[in-house]
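Q: Here's a chain of 233 amino acids. Please give me its 3D structure as tokens.
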Amino acid sequence: MSSFSYHELSHQDPSMKSKKNERGLNIILGVWTAVGVFFLYQGGLLENPTPRIGEFPGGEFVFKSDSRDYAASGGACRALEDLLKSTSEECIDPISNEPSKYWDHTIYIFYHDDPKKLPWKMMPRYSVGALLRPKQKHLKEKIVAIDDTYESVTVPKGKAAIIQFPHTDGLTSLLLFPYKVLSPLLKFANENRKGEDRDYGAIITTCDKEKSICTHYAVSFLSFFTYSDIFSC
């Protein structure tokens, strides 16, 4: 009477090898799904923050503009931070006047469009730049000396709807931004208009890496931007 080892049996039955491969693939997919859910959770998927009415601080905005998916703005922020570091200027928080590890207190993003309201295939517009307070105005010359493609405009202080939302300094937060921040904040702002308030048409964002939080302002004062000069599209 002949006998077969397990190795011989599995070698003779291709279906066993196929099931083993399928099981391994399911495990890998399960792990990647869990990792994806974790990063979405960290990025604020389950967060539902409450907006409030407050004030945008204003300042001189030294910026570059582009028309791309909003997720691309993260790379522009990192490029600006590298530029600010290269100025050899001491990094001081303009509000607390304390030394800071990061320049994120000075870096702001102006999101000019709600992607949900744009025509098909039209990319949203944004501007990334340094919002300079009075004590930081000398930084403008240093920025432009390194990269003369930066423009500048004075942004007024003004009324804004404000919301804070978790930020991981990664792609997850940027992907959630249009759905968890931009559209809900603009909706809240326009529902709370009073008197002579204009439509709220732009979101201004600044982030705190150490606290993993971003502050978003919905503003109605857009006259300081001349879009025909900034955007060629």
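Q: Can you summarize the key feature?
A: Residues 31-46, 226-233 have pLDDT under 50 and may be disordered.
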